[in-house]
Design goal:
Strand order of the largest sheet: 1-2-3-4
Structural class: alpha+beta
CATH class: Alpha Beta
Radius of gyration: 12 Å
Distance between the termini: 19 Å
Shape: globular
CATH architecture: 3-Layer(aba) Sandwich
Order of helices and strands: HEEEHEH
Helix content: 25-40%
Strand content: 15-25%
Length: about 90
């Protein structure tokens, strides 16, 4: 399955739960996650989307650790199973 298909499924799943799934870009800062998922009750999850079996690059992992150090939930999703987990 293509990464774009998984990303579309993520957006639809988050919306079905009453949330928003925003595309995240940060000019001047490479390696940030692809999406910010905002859920009712103030829950925030940053999501790096990958095609099945692909892994995050070292710079992406660095950015994930930075966000996690601030207390944020960061996920790398490469399957529908991962989508269902959030």
């Amino acid at each position: 399955m293509l990464e774009s298909n998984l990303e579309r499924k993520l957006v639809n799943r988050v919306r079905s739960q009453g949330g928003q799934c925003l595309k995240f870009t940060s000019p001047g800062t490479s390696g940030v996650p692809d999406r910010i998922c905002l859920f009712p009750g103030g829950r925030v999850v940053f999501v790096e989307m990958k095609a099945p079996g692909e892994k995050a690059r070292p710079l992406q992992l660095k950015r994930h650790r930075e966000l996690q150090a601030l207390g944020f939930d960061v996920r790398v999703i490469d399957s529908e199973v991962g989508i269902n987990e959030i």
